[in-house]
UniProtKB/TrEMBL annotation:
Residues 122-289 form the SMP-30/Gluconolactonase/LRE-like region domain. It holds the Pfam family SGL. PANTHER family: BLR2277 PROTEIN, LIPOPROTEIN-RELATED. Residues 1-21 form the signal peptide. This is SMP-30/gluconolactonase/LRE family protein. The lineage of its organism: Bacteria, Pseudomonadati, Pseudomonadota, Alphaproteobacteria, Hyphomicrobiales. SUPFAM superfamilies: Calcium-dependent phosphotriesterase (SSF63829). Keywords: Signal.
Amino acid sequence: MLRFGALLAFSLLPVVNSAAAAEWRILAQFDDAPEGLVADKDGGLYVSLFHSGLVMRVAKDGKATKIADLRSVIGDAKGSTVGLEWDRKDTLYVAFSEYSKGFPWPAKANLSVEACGDSTVTKSGLYKVTISTGKVEPVVTRADGYPFCFPDDPVMAPDGKIYLSDLSLQAIWKIDPEAKSAEIWSKDPLFSPGDKSLSGYPVGVNGITLSADAKTLYGVTGGIPMLVKVPVKDDGSAGPAEMLAFGYDNMDGLELDTDGNFYLTETTRSEIWKVSADGKKRQQLGNPLEAPLGAPASIAIANGEICVTNLNFFKHLPPEKANSIACSKLENSLW
């Protein structure tokens, strides 16, 4: 019961606000809101478009080209094309969450639990995109009998398995793409806000990533906003989750740099944060008063910059800056 850690102590830790020094630029804009983001080997980015189901590649100069269209498989299903992961070869894994007609989450936040139980929803799950051909294939979906609710962010383990966060189920799946099978890997109580959501959204874990040695999975939560870590045991199972940092609002994206520092996106306040590897220091890298940020979702490090997708869920940005990827030079830590 002490896994939340010393909550009061964290609020007294050093905070370095460098938002005024950070310069943000718009790298690319789209006809739809971008959500998922992952860097490629050439300093470019792969990005998913939230409503249209398109998967794009953005070069270093901001030029965007279409890679694939999930609608070739999901048809006219209404839903969110969310996070994506790249296998460092020719495959992207993309999460899709179909909306429930009877319980329209995320349009109505209080219906997230009810939406999980809608048996007419069949398209939610994980999809495979072959980059060279644009071919889209389902890996595992609700049509296969798995109770995905809002599959959100995938991350690949060294053995080729995929961890997939489920925002509304408040859980993390582990998926075998070859066997096309899935299991609940962690449904830790720390992911669940219960009836005491601090952000106003009854949701669980959102963005996830793995440590360099793949022995720890990190995630950010939305209901009770935290940065958490989940040990990966020697047998591959999940250990008890622990809190590393708190003191934010509804959190979305997460990335690690080579020094083990964390980069977090916060959607309600449209802020970008850097947190030290030990979780004890934090530095604000951007806010909507000084940067073109609107409900930033996923985050990636590419070409010496940190880049975020502006989902603009709360309409912070004007049309000329919305539906965009914003980037800022990756600076050395001030700690």
